[in-house]
Amino acid sequence: MATDVVIVGAGPVGLYLAASLLQEGISVRVLEQRTERNLHSRAIGIHPPALNALDQVQLAAAMVQEGVPIRTGLAVSRGKTVASMTFDAVSEAFPFVLALPQHRTEQLLEDRVLALDSGAIVRGARVTGLYDDGGRAAVAVEPSAGGAGQREFRASFVVAADGARSQLRKALDVPVRTKAYPDHYLMGDFADSGDQGQTAVLFLEAGGIVESFPLPGGLRRWVVRLRTPAEAADADRLAGLVLQRTGILPDVETNTMVSAFSVRSTLARRTVAGRVLLIGDAAHEISPIGGQGMNLGWMAAHALSPLIRRGVAGEPVEGQLKEFDAGRWRAAVIARRQSEVNMMLGRPLPAPFLQLRNLAIGCAASVPAINQWTARRFTMQ
């Protein structure tokens, strides 16, 4: 089957790119190995630049309507407010970070793609081979049980949006720079007590940071920094650690998701390999702390979409793709540095050093110019 663009991976980044191309008249097939979507909340933070991009595919308004706009962040330690930050000045259109579970984000994106082309998404399709002759590219597909029967998809471009362990990236033998961090986390969603409203709260405690974010549906996300990797994702342990460090006890009976993770970053040395392009976690995996990864992928897809359209139309885009590659590398390095700062601020400290760090944070936040600059950095401006 021939199409203009084949996108491998029906996650939020691949679906966004599909919607962006389809609404401009580009034919697209999105190949997804999974036959059903993951319904866990996973990534929840959508930053203003990403909302601007999502607005281009007519989805920002629906997402804002469903999500929780976080307009204020607090840093708290031992029950006292260390610093506060408002996002009022970070964007005229979207002066907040939007909290929306990833499964709803993906559903809205999928609905938009299918509204543009009901046959655009092919589930149950595992890509087993890749071919690029310099003029067109193709992927070989092994359908899973219940999947579509198409064996090969040919296209002007193939886009790998198949995640941090991208099989297409491996097939292309693209080198990566991987970095592991001594940071481990346990996170979960519980019923919101309502005490913190729509405010994000960072508890800077001696045992390590505890992060708390509002979610739609009366839920709240809790993230706890651990000293060692968690042996299992345990809601009881998570609730106990939150209580120990903050004095707040999430109701374990209301837990809807719990997971444990350790942090690493992976940066592909190149995102353009002939007619095959890498985006999302396939190109740059960033620490989840700070919520930058999904947003970084959307911003890359937003920048890539017009280049693909020109390439499909027969225009020479090699030079522009080279610039795109360099620009995404710079953006990924900046995002990685920001995530490293975020993690550093949350690491355990003895009481005297914790007090000094909190004092420094409070002093910096009390200067309006620094506070506003920090708010823009945290929202990926």
Descriptive key words:
381 residues; alpha+beta; eight-stranded mixed sheet; 10 helices; 30% strand
What does this structure look like?
The protein has 381 residues and is of the alpha+beta class. Helix content is 35%, strand content 30%. It has ten helices and 19 strands. Strands 1, 2, 8, 9, 10, 11, 17 and 18 form an eight-stranded mixed sheet that branches. Strands 6-5-13-14-15-12-16-19 form an eight-stranded mixed sheet, sandwiched between helices. Strands 3-7-4 form a three-stranded antiparallel sheet. A hairpin with a 4-residue loop joins strand 9 (125-132) and strand 10 (137-143). It is elongated, with a radius of gyration of 21 Å. 46% of the residues are buried.
Short description:
This protein is an alpha+beta fold.
Q: Number of helical runs?
A: 10
Strand content: 25-35%
Shape: elongated
Mean pLDDT reading = 93
Helix content: 25-40%
Radius of gyration from the alpha-carbon trace, in angstroms: 21 Å
List the secondary-structure elements in sequence, H or E.
Answer: EHEEHHEEEEHEEEEHEEEEHEEEEHHHH
Low-confidence segments, given as residue ranges, are none
Strand elements, count:
19
Distance between the termini: 41 Å
Structural class: alpha+beta
For the report, how would you describe the main beta sheet?
8 strands, mixed
Which helices and strands occur, and which strands form pairs?
Blueprint: E1 2-8, H1 12-22, E2 28-32, E3 45-46, H2 48-55, H3 60-66, E4 68-70, E5 72-77, E6 80-86, E7 97-99, H4 102-116, E8 121-123, E9 125-132, E10 137-143, E11 152-160, H5 167-172, E12 176-191, E13 200-203, E14 210-215, E15 219-226, H6 235-246, E16 257-268, E17 272-273, E18 276-278, E19 284-285, H7 293-312, H8 318-345, H9 351-365, H10 368-378
Parallel strand pairs: 1-2, 1-11, 2-8, 5-13, 11-18
Antiparallel strand pairs: 3-7, 4-7, 5-6, 9-10, 10-11, 12-15, 12-16, 13-14, 14-15, 16-19, 17-18
